Amino acid sequence: MRGRAISVSSGVTIPRFLAGPFGMAISPGSDAAFSSQKSTLSESPRSKKFPLTEEEIFYMNCRAAYLTVFKSSLDNIISKDQLCLALQHAGRNPSQKTINKYWTPQTAKLNFDDFCLILRKEKPTSKAELLKSFKQLDVNDDGSILHTDLYKLLTKRGEKMTREEVNAIINLADVNADGKFDYIKFCKLYMTTNEQCLKTTLEKLEVDSKLRRQQFGSHMEGSPERDPSPVPKPSPNIIRKTDQESFSNKGDTRSSSLTTTREFRTSVSFTITMGASSKQNSKLTEPNSIKEWQCVQSKGCFFLEEDGEIISHQYRMQIAQRSLVYLTIKPLNLSQAEGKPSPWLSVDTALYILKENESQANLQLMCFTELRNREMFGWTGELGPGIYWLIPSTTGCRLKKEIKPITEEAQLVHRDETGELFLTKEFRSTLSDIFEVIDLDGNGLLSLEEYNFFELRTSGEKCDEDAWAVCRENFDTKKNELTRQGFMDLNLMEANDGEGDPRDLWVTLHSMGYNKALELTEACPFVIDIYADKCKPRIKTVHMEACSGQLEKAICKSVLNKGDAKVMDGYENIIVHTYKCDTWITSVIENKSDNKVIIHINNELSKNCVNNRGLDIFAVEVAPKSTMVMHCFLIKAFCFINLKKTFLLLMLWINM
Length: 656
Fold this sequence. Notes:
It comes from Tursiops truncatus (Atlantic bottle-nosed dolphin). Keywords: Calcium, Cell membrane, Cell projection, Membrane, Metal-binding, Phosphoprotein, Repeat. GO terms for molecular function: calcium ion binding. Its main location: membrane. The protein is built from 17 helices and 29 strands. Among the domains are: 54-186, EF-hand (Recoverin, domain 1, Orthogonal Bundle), CATH 1.10.238; 286-401 and 522-546, Jelly Rolls (Sandwich); 415-518, Recoverin, domain 1 (Orthogonal Bundle), CATH 1.10.238.10; 563-635, Immunoglobulin-like (Sandwich). Strands 6, 7, 8, 23, 24, 25, 26, 27, 28 and 29 form a ten-stranded antiparallel beta sheet that branches. Strands 9, 10, 11, 12, 13, 14, 15, 16, 21 and 22 form a ten-stranded antiparallel beta sheet that branches. By secondary structure, the protein is an alpha+beta fold. The longest helix is centred in the first third of the chain and has 25 residues, at 183-207.
């Protein structure tokens, strides 16, 4: 049986992987689950020379867990049992409810990318959580649980265990004595074994060249006894079978339909060498008569989610008559306290302009802000009358999860000698900056619409008209909109409601991208300016959602229109499109064939650039007749980029 978790109270689970053939083992080389421990990585030769980022550590641990269960990270998870086992090897303690959340009746398979997303959402079990779970059952508060109580718990509550499974737990010699289960020893042993398992598995990935080079499922490595030989290039017009062609007949063996899997390998590499000013026409300059044009401005923000996804405000713009238009986007400069870093000012920004034709679903890419003047990106051109969507974008190269530890938490509130509660000066300064960000139209006031974008971000709920009326009655407003002072008083009221407990205030701050030192590290506020020579543009903020979907299509279209194209050797239907400006490079894979393709990318030789994926070696799967953004690079000063597609694995599914 597979290990599971058993719930003992709301939100509390006890590991079920103590029993059965996949149960907790005591030896360091066991298959016990492991959690992400950075300390074990520090001993590897690579990390000593080049410290690993948090993202690299995460994906390395994902691969280690996945490759412990599967031969390749191209293998799919095809059952609940496999999902449960893989999650346990990644240090998770999934209950049946958790498994069912990701494996629904409609689920046929999950791939490695799905597995990584699950691990971002399901955090590893900590020693403190385990101790807290067990402590609730420790009636004598002596660090142990009677076997009789443990037996009743595990067989009567939650996901009930069998008698054999409970006996397997009770028979663990190192944590049982005198009819009692010593949960303190168990928790210590559990964490020690997890750490050792992780270290052992990662060391294997480090020294085993086949596993290390495999990364995301590469099968390129040959037998160590043979010298590497070049991969043959098949003719574009001839489909050749490889030695690894295989046949599988799923279901009834009497079926006349056979599924054939054929693998084809080829490679292409190219080098881009460029300086910071490689394009002479990439300089953004204002039109000469712009002072006579009509202007509108709106603010917004990129927010980094827990799973690494980026969301932002999105806009609709109306142009009443054909006009010359000048659009810009740049990071918003806030009044940070002296000495505090402003990391968001280095985040790259872009704006894609799509025209709404017959419906919102039918959007046509018109242009994007490819010209640059320092941190500002812009576009100048003519737009006809109509409705346009403005979709902000960032490569994500500079907007990533923070990895530096915060040693001292900022104080948000304090009481005077009379006991009255006040917001600290530092917190008030931060709230003032937040007000500046959420005041989208820049009029110094918060409308209900603007305030609701803030509420949706921080609490997931909207404020209705009745609640807004109460807010106007109790806090400083002007023209039915909340003033900056009213916003401060609203937060002070929240602090008083919590009797000075700052936890709810910290939820708001974290949602807005601030860390415990009140530094804005996981968000990038920006400002959009739009000028038109014939009419006044109108702009309205309509969404705050993930930078995907229409944006992905827009990026692919822009790269296909303006980038350089290179055909994969021997496969005329697989094309790599690359667009470069003086600050970033974007690559898109176009698959014109009727079959999915898996592209393996190796960027290890790239210099002076930042990769938005955080990995030098990875794989992407491209559906038939589609395009996909492969990766983006943010360029530093002078950039030498070598993009080597190690090989193409083309899988053909043929009915015979």
